[in-house]
Amino acid sequence: MTNSTNTALFNYVLGLADDALILGQRTSEWCSRGPFLEEDIALSNLALDYIGRARMFYQYAAQIQGMGKTEDDLAYFRDEREFTNLVINELPNFDFAFSIVRQYLLDVHACLYLEQLSNSKDQRLSEIAAKAIKETRYHLKRSETWVLQLGQGTEESAKRMQDALDELWGYTPELFISSEAELALSGEEGEASIAVNRESLRHLWLERVTAHMLTSGLVIPEQNWQVVGGRNGDHSEHLGHLLSEMQILQRSYPGLEW
Amino acid sequence: MQHISLVTPEYAARRATRANSDCPALWSILDSVFDPELPYVTIWDLGILVDVEQTTQHSCKVTVSPTYSGCPAVDVISDDIKAALMKEGMQSVTVEVSLSPAWHTDLMSPDAKHALHNQGIAPPAQVVHCPQCDSGDVDVISQFGSTACKALYRCNSCLEPFDYFKDF
Questions:
Q1: Is the Cβ–Cβ distance between A210 and A165 less than 8 Å?
Q2: CB neighbours (10 Å) of residue A201?
Q3: Which residues of chain B neighbour A103 with C-beta distances below 8 Å?
Q4: Which chain B residues are closer than 8 Å to A45 by Cβ?
Q5: What angle do CA B69, B71, B75 make, to 5 degrees?
Q6: A interface mutation test: which of B107, B142, B167 has the most A CBs within 10 A?
Q7: Domains (range + CATH), chain B
Q8: How far apart are CA A60 and CA A10, in angstroms?
Q9: Domains of chain A: which residue ranges?
Q10: pLDDT of B40-76, one tens digit each?
């Protein structure tokens, strides 16, 4: 493997790890605050799946990086501008409707994404994807049901769902922009590649989301604004707060173990 | 009457791996290691014990495959495996966590399903039945239960809630 491929692979895997960790950490904030006990447990389990996914990616990234780095170094000792997660993952939970709509939009995307990643030329990535896609399909079943139930629920629940969709919509274009690392790891047309081609997922994603929102009585907003930049380390004001809470223990007592 | 086998092809393949192993004693020792979240199902029966290799007279390598990627029990399971084997004379035990092939419920043994049922947990199945009264009239309360591998159900016949070990 050449040096530049190595750097691209590291950045690629790190981006996937950051996506999973930040969404997992954000979702874990629901723990003890869920709308009812069973849902509280479900959200905590969902968070756990994402943190497990983050660990698989960070362990691989640390291995590519070498120099004796560990998954913990990558998760706890990098600053806000070094995190390359997509902005949609770091947005606060706001209300239950917002978290559910975000999860649904990301679940549909993750199903398509992981399906492609499981064919990656990189064996480790294809193994992680094969493990994660089973969990994501299950998550999708759940978020799909909630979108339908709340979209067709009361006037209040439908309004909250629509508000959430309107607010989140501008963050979805970033799901389909390939980063520099992803472009570097994409093969020629028709060739097997390491990274997933994000643009190629857009059409199917939009088709599925549009159909389900229609059934749920929700309206897809016009795409007249967008927020991008997470992959370059440009984040909203919310990420720093999340990181400070997540990292404080390791920053205060470096190397601390349970 | 046609005999319907309860043994899945996946479990049969695992059984063959174990039967053809050249260190049957080590596999037997690991029959004493239970899943910490399901302390009545061994790691063999649950399907997470993938392989055991004896590398030298006093060292061996054990391969396990986690149920869910975020399963917090993996570290405890690794420690339990090492402790069990070292108690029986092994001096060096390596535990490798392998992701591929990914764990799924068809890898479980029939014994695991019986043990779950006996503990009031509905085992993975195409159609979920209440483990208390066997009624098929059940509703899902939450897709996740007390651990990532379970969902929470309620029986409409005997009105008892119960855990269902998800078909995965």
A1: no
A2: 19
A3: none
A4: 144, 147-148
A5: 110
A6: B142
A7: 9-107 (3.30.300.130), 120-165 (no CATH)
A8: 8
A9: 3-252
A10: 999 999 999 999 999 999 999 999 998 888 888 888 9
Residue A201 corresponds to which amino acid? L
Total-model pTM: 0.89
- A245 in the Ramachandran plot: left (φ > 0), alpha (ψ -120 to 50) or beta? alpha
Cα–Cα distance between A239 and A226 in angstroms, integer?
18
Residues 6+ apart with CB under 8 A from A56: A128, A131, A132, B69, B99
| Alpha carbon distance A169, B86 (integer Å) | 56
CATH entry, A3-252, from 3.40.50.2300, 1.20.1260.10, 2.60.40.380, 3.30.1490.110: 1.20.1260.10
φ and ψ at A154, to 5 degrees?
-85, 175
pLDDT tens sequence across A79-121: 999 999 999 999 999 999 999 999 999 999 999 999 999 999 9
Q: What is the mean pLDDT of chain A?
A: 95
Task: With CB atoms and an 8 Å threshold, state whether A49 touches B70.
Answer: yes
Q: Scan for tokens 């174990």, then name that residue.
A: B18
Cβ–Cβ under 8 Å, residues A109 and A132 = no
What distance, in Å, lies between the first and last C-alpha atoms of chain B?
Answer: 30
pLDDT per residue over B109-135, tens digit each? 999 999 999 999 999 988 999 999 999
For B74, nearest residue in chain A (alpha carbons): A52
